[in-house]
Structures are given as structure tokens and as C-alpha cells.
Design goal:
The complex is a heterodimer of chains A (about 250) and B (about 425).
Chain A (H helix, E strand, L loop, with lengths): L1 E10 L5 E10 L4 E5 L6 H9 L4 E10 L2 E2 L5 H6 L2 E4 L6 E5 H15 L7 H14 L4 H5 L1 E2 L5 H15 L3 E5 L7 H14 L5 E5 L3 H6 L4 E6 L2 E6 L2 H9 L2 H8 L1
Parallel strand pairs in A: 3-10, 3-11, 6-9, 9-10
Antiparallel strand pairs in A: 1-2, 1-4, 4-5, 7-8, 11-12
Helix pairs in contact in A: 6-7
Chain B lengths: L4 H12 L8 H17 L15 H4 L24 E6 L2 E2 L12 E5 H4 L13 H5 L7 H9 L4 E5 L7 E6 L6 E10 L4 E7 L5 E10 L4 E9 L5 E10 L4 E9 L3 E10 L5 E11 L3 E10 L5 E11 L3 E10 L7 E10 L5 E10 L5 E9 L3 H9 L4 H17 L5 H19 L1
Parallel strand pairs in B: 1-5, 4-6, 5-7, 6-8, 7-9, 8-10, 9-11, 10-12, 11-13, 12-14, 13-15, 14-16, 15-17, 16-18, 17-19
Antiparallel strand pairs in B: 1-2, 3-4
Helix pairs in contact in B: 2-6, 7-8, 8-9
Chain lengths: ~250, ~425
């Protein structure tokens, strides 16, 4: 699904290298998790993949189903099937959540040469998906993320994901700011989307989220590189011993 | 202290270019008073503090510059879906054939040109009176000029709650027209009315509206200016608010080489509420000035000023807004926000927010900002597949939303929103 090779990234405005050769091969239908200490480059990886300004790719590549995503505009990446669930979803006053969702869904359909959804069809689908995430009509009407609690914002991200049906979903610390119940709700939303044709990259600090969203592969990222890859047991090891052992191993 | 020669000459030249209209006793007296006020003040020049950011020369010069007649055939008239009583003015002259019958339950409407011929009229207590009051502490000579020279307009006496809004529609037919209109609106106690305005009025347009809202009366005003890019317009609204009354005025402006909208309100009765809001979008040779002066003269009143300007390609936006709280106006709640969204480095926003407070138990806040499109929000929208241009448009509408939300009627605000969207779409091509 997503092939990342030797990815080197620096900040555009300063001479600071953040990613120093990331290699990742994410197969269709799998859930990969990335864990790692603060400042290891996890969020940068998610931003670079989704096309945020301010980063410069100095070497390496990233291909989504054979297409070079690093060459695309953010909206083209979205139309190609990439989705980033933000760690800090942005508030947009004055734009209704529903209007936003419909604009996004139809923009992607248009980019892919599909017909736009009618207002009626859209409404039916969004209501159904919102219900499973316990997002009520009031929340759909409110301006995008304005006045939403931390949990509501994250649920709203998952609703967008459910509506856009991306192939490659990147979740950037989706568990941050969530209480236990909200985490369960969000995880159920994610699990409902697991599919043989869909890949997840779950970025998190904590093993806790991975109790709910069970990963197939766990990577440890440190200092701009993937330093260790393993099964779900790797996450448990981190939870018990911290990163120190793994990092020491790497240096040795 | 005499008036500087430059002002005397400017005023003389302007008055000489146009005869004072003839009328009956009460209006003739009001015109004489206005003329005396004007001569004492003189027309404004760019050196006046109040005109520091807006050059008034094309508004004061003897002969108006011509402006191409604008054809908005590509979109349906504004408020088209709303049942309304239409009063049409072509180049500043009432067009009875194009207008609806003025009879409507709860309101008495007369043409200024007709009412002015009478010997006595209710409008005598308002015409030029609120304007004269609004000349202090800041002079507004172009409003006095209007009271002296206005040839037409409507006098609306609201005694009940008319079933539909009254819509003043302006049409511009002659490229050299120089129109002066003066409307007077009197809302009785407990009465309620909505007044709509739209359409290009003339090459040069000087409009004055005096609004007296009695105790518990409600006045809604929604105005759309624009698309006739070459026009020059100066407008004044003078409002007096009685006890527990409501006054809400919203203006949308798109295009226009020069627009100066002044709103001067005095809250004279306790528990009154005032809102003055504006959303404007300018591209290129665009200069838009909102000048607002709200005086709190009673207890527990609320006033809001919400102005948003989207500017690009060298467009200029001006905001001069003041809240004056008199010593007895305790428990005043005053809010003022003026913001601009600058879509490039060439555009300018000039703001002068002012608070002057003499009471000690009040809550007043004001803020003024100018900035570019929020990059975080732009990326967020684009990451969901929304194309960059569309995402920018959504963020422009998001920016304007707070001003549009001041409109009470959903039906009207949706109509206004659709116009703004259409304007953005045209710009994108």
C-alpha cells in the first residue's frame, strides 16, 4: 500500500534534519503502529506524508499504490486515498461540520471522476456513520470543531475518515486527550473500518491505544529512524521497560 | 474663527452646481437649517482628522465623476425569494411604475417629494433633526449637505408590524447621475419593521437615513451595496433608540471604488440593544470605509459593532469605530470588533477603534486584527481533499461569518451568504 524508502526530511526554515532515513513497507489490510519517544519524528512523518508546508524532503521516496505522493498537493493525496487524523484538529468557525464533510466528500469524488453525492444520499450516510460514533445532529450542525471537547474532536476525525473511506489512514496520536470511554468509542470507529483493502498507520505514545486497535506490526522510531520492528509484543515491552533498553540496543 | 477659504470655496462650488429643491414650509425650514449647518462646517477635505484614511474629494467636488452603468444580469436580484414591498428609485428618483403600491397594514409610506409639499408633517420632528444631533461631537458635513439637497426619499411611519419587509431598490441608468436621497423612518412603541436596501443607485450617491425607534420598537435593516464597481457613495444612518428598543443594521459590500458608510446611534432609553455589522469584499481599486459612532446615554444597554473586510489586489479597508459611554450609562455592555483578511501584501486595513467611557460600571471590549488566511486551517481542509481555491473560499466565508450572524432572519442571511459565495466564485473564474 505505502512504501517509504530512505526518507530524509528537514525543516524548510532551519537547518534541522528530522527524518534521517525512514524505511517502512505497509501492506494492504494491515495495521502498523509507530511508537517512540518525544521528538523522534513521528508527527513529522505524518505531516510530510500528508503534504504539510514547512518541510523539505532531502532524500528518499514515498509511494502510495505505486504513485509518488511526495510530488502531490495535499488534496491530491487525499483523493489518492491518504488520510491523516490530526493530533490537534483545527477549529473552523462559520463553516458547518456538515457543509465541510459534504464539500470534502464531493471534492474527492469529483477528483476521482465520480458523481457527486446528492444532498439526500449524503445525509443518509452521514447520519448512520455519525450514530455509531455517538455524534448527534447538533454536533453535525455546529461549526467544524468549534467548542468541541477533546473527545468530540477525535470522534469527528474518525467520522471524516469513515465518510471519506481512505485506503491509507494515518492516525497521529489519536489517543491524546481522550478518556477511557472516548478511547473505546474512537477505537471501535477505527476497527469498524479495518478492511483487507485498507491500511492503518497508528502513531502513539502509549500501548493503551493498541489494546483497542490491535496492530499487526509495531515499529519503534527514534532520532528520525525506525530502530526496531516487531509484533504486538514490542509495544508491551515498551510499556514495561520504556525506550531506554531498545535505544541502548540500537547504539550498541 | 472663520472657515478656511478652501472649505468655503469647495462648499460654494458644490452648492452652486445644484439648486436647493423647492418644498413646503416644514421641509423648506429644515433645508434652510441644514444649509446653515453645512455652511458653518464646510465640506470635508483630506486634511480633516475624520477623513484621514478616506479622501472625500470625489464626494465633495461640484460635478460627479461618471460611472459605467452596471448590469447584474448574471444573477437574480437580491431578496428575490422574499415577499417584500418594493420601492424603486432610478438614479435617485422614485419610480412609481416600477414600485409596488405603498399601502401596507401597520405602516404608512410616503414619498419625501410629496410629503415635503405639505405645510405640516410628522417627519418635521425627525428630518434633519437626528442628523443635526449627530453633528456633535464629530462633524458630518456630507450629511448636512444631504438634508439640504435631498430631492427624494421615503418617509416610513411604522405603527404596527407589517407583514413583509420594505425593500428600497436602487437602479443606476445614467452614467453621470448624482443622486441624493433622504429617508426617515419612525418606528412607534411596540412596532416592528424590516427595511432592505439593494442595487446600484447612481454614479455618485449621497444617502441619509434617519431612524427613530420608540420604546420597545424593533428596527431591522439589511443593506447590500455593490457590484457596480465605479460608483462613489457616502451614506449616513442616524438612529435614536428608546427604552427596550432594538436596532440592527447589517451591510454587505462587494466592489466599489469609494464607499463611506457612517452610522451614528444614540441609545437614549434603558435596556436598548443596537447592532451594526458589515461584511465587505474588495478586489483591486476598492476603498471601503465604515465609520461608526455609538453613544450610550441610558442604563443597561447593549451595543455591538462587528465589521469584517476581505481585501485583495491592493484593496483598502477603513474602520473608525467609537463607543461613547456617558456618565449615567451604567451597566453598558459594548462590543466592538473590526477585522480584515488580507489576501496579499498589497492590500491595506486602517483601523481606529475608540472607547470613551465616563461611567464606572460598564463592560466594553474592542479588538481589531488583520491577518492572512490561516495556514493550519487551509492545510486541514486540503488534507480532506478540498481543492486549494475552494478551501480558501470556505475560510473567507468562515472569516465573515461572525458579521453575517448578526442578521436576525435566516432567510436573508442565507441570501447574503449566497451572494458572497457567488462573488468568490466569479473571482476564481
Amino acid at each position: 500500500m505505502l512504501e517509504i524508502k530512505n526518507l530524509h526530511v528537514k525543516l524548510e526554515d532551519e537547518d534541522k534534519q528530522i527524518l534521517k532515513g525512514v524505511d517502512l513497507s505497509l501492506e494492504a489490510g494491515k495495521v502498523h503502529a509507530i511508537m517512540g519517544p518525544n521528538g523522534s519524528g513521528k508527527s513529522t512523518l505524518s505531516y510530510v506524508l500528508s503534504g504539510k508546508d514547512g518541510y523539505e524532503v532531502t532524500d528518499g521516496s514515498a509511494h502510495l499504490q505505486g504513485e509518488d505522493v511526495l510530488d502531490m498537493e495535499p488534496e491530491e493525496r487525499a483523493a489518492a486515498g491518504l488520510f491523516l487524523a490530526f493530533q490537534y484538529p483545527v477549529e473552523i468557525p462559520g463553516v458547518g461540520n456538515m457543509t465541510f464533510l459534504r464539500t470534502a466528500v464531493n471534492a474527492q469524488r469529483k477528483a476521482r471522476g465520480e458523481d457527486e453525492l446528492s444532498a439526500g444520499d449524503f445525509l443518509k450516510v452521514v447520519r448512520e456513520k455519525a450514530k455509531t460514533l455517538k455524534i448527534d445532529a447538533e454536533m453535525l450542525k455546529r461549526p467544524v470543531n468549534v467548542g468541541f471537547s477533546g473527545g468530540e474532536k477525535k470522534r469527528n476525525e474518525i467520522l471524516q475518515m469513515a465518510m471519506l473511506e481512505p485506503k491509507m489512514c494515518i492516525l497521529d496520536e489519536t489517543d491524546s486527550g481522550l478518556d477511557v470511554d472516548a478511547m473505546k468509542l474512537v477505537s471501535e470507529g477505527v476497527n469498524a473500518l479495518r478492511d483487507a483493502g485498507r491500511t492503518f498507520l497508528v502513531i502513539t505514545h502509549y500501548q493503551r491505544l493498541l489494546d483497542h486497535i490491535k496492530p499487526d506490526v509495531v515499529h519503534i522510531m527514534a532520532n528520525g529512524r525506525i530502530v526496531k520492528t516487531g509484533g504486538p509484543e514490542l509495544a508491551l515491552e515498551v510499556e514495561q521497560n520504556g525506550y531506554a533498553d531498545i535505544l541502548a540496543e540500537e547504539v550498541a | 474663527m472663520g472657515l478656511p477659504d478652501i472649505k468655503t470655496n469647495l462648499t460654494d462650488a458644490r452648492l452652486a452646481a445644484q439648486p436647493v429643491p423647492q418644498s413646503g414650509a416644514w421641509l423648506a425650514a429644515a433645508r434652510d437649517d441644514a444649509l446653515a449647518r453645512l455652511r458653518a462646517m464646510g465640506l470635508p477635505t483630506k486634511r480633516d482628522e475624520y477623513w484621514k484614511y478616506t479622501d472625500p474629494s470625489t464626494l465633495t467636488e461640484a460635478v460627479a465623476q461618471s460611472a459605467g452603468v452596471f448590469d447584474a444580469a448574471d444573477e437574480a436580484p437580491l431578496y428575490d425569494g422574499i415577499d417584500r414591498l418594493k420601492l424603486v428609485f432610478v438614479d435617485g428618483v422614485f419610480d412609481a411604475d416600477a414600485s409596488d403600491d405603498m399601502a401596507l397594514e401597520g405602516v404608512a409610506i410616503e414619498r419625501l417629494a410629496d410629503a415635503g409639499a405639505a405645510d405640516i408633517h410628522w417627519a418635521k420632528d425627525l428630518y434633519g433633526v437626528l442628523e443635526a444631533k449627530g453633528q456633535s461631537p464629530v462633524e458630518r458635513p456630507l450629511a448636512a449637505l444631504n438634508s439640504a439637497m435631498a430631492t427624494d426619499g421615503v418617509l416610513i411611519h411604522v405603527t404596527g408590524t407589517p407583514s413583509k419587509p420594505i425593500c428600497l431598490i436602487y437602479r443606476h441608468a445614467d452614467a453621470t447621475s448624482d443622486a441624493t436621497l433622504h429617508h426617515v423612518i419612525k418606528v412607534d412603541a411596540g412596532a416592528e419593521v424590516t427595511v432592505l436596501e439593494n442595487g446600484p443607485a447612481a454614479a455618485r450617491f449621497n444617502k441619509c437615513m434617519e431612524v427613530d425607534v420608540a420604546d420597545t420598537g424593533v428596527f431591522h435593516h439589511i443593506r447590500a451595496q455593490g457590484r457596480d464597481h465605479e460608483r462613489r457613495a457616502v451614506t449616513h444612518i442616524f438612529g435614536r433608540l428608546g427604552k427596550e428598543s432594538v436596532f440592527k443594521s447589517f451591510t454587505m459590500t462587494a466592489n466599489g471604488v469609494l464607499t463611506r458608510n457612517e452610522v451614528v446611534l444614540e441609545l437614549t432609553g434603558d435596556d436598548a440593544q443596537a447592532s451594526v455589522a458589515g461584511a465587505c469584499m474588495g478586489d483591486g481599486a476598492f476603498h471601503h470605509d465604515d465609520t461608526v459612532f455609538i453613544t450610550h446615554d441610558a442604563v443597561n444597554c447593549e451595543s455591538r459593532q462587528v465589521f469584517k473586510k476581505v481585501l485583495r489586489n491592493g484593496a483598502v479597508g477603513v474602520f473608525q469605530g467609537k463607543i461613547l459611554v456617558q456618565p449615567d450609562a451604567q451597566k453598558t455592555d459594548g462590543y466592538q470588533i473590526s477585522q480584515s483578511l488580507l489576501l496579499d501584501d498589497d492590500s491595506q486595513f486602517l483601523a481606529k477603534p475608540e472607547l470613551e467611557i465616563y461611567a464606572d460600571d460598564v463592560a466594553c471590549s474592542h479588538g481589531s486584527t488583520s491577518g492572512a488566511i490561516n495556514e493550519e486551517a487551509l492545510f486541514y481542509l486540503r488534507s480532506r481533499g478540498v481543492e486549494k481555491g475552494t478551501a480558501e473560499d470556505l475560510l473567507v466565508l468562515s472569516f465573515l461569518a461572525e458579521a453575517i450572524e448578526e442578521i436576525e432572519s435566516d432567510e436573508i442571511s442565507e441570501d447574503i451568504l449566497a451572494r458572497l459565495e457567488a462573488w468568490l466564485m466569479r473571482r476564481r473564474g
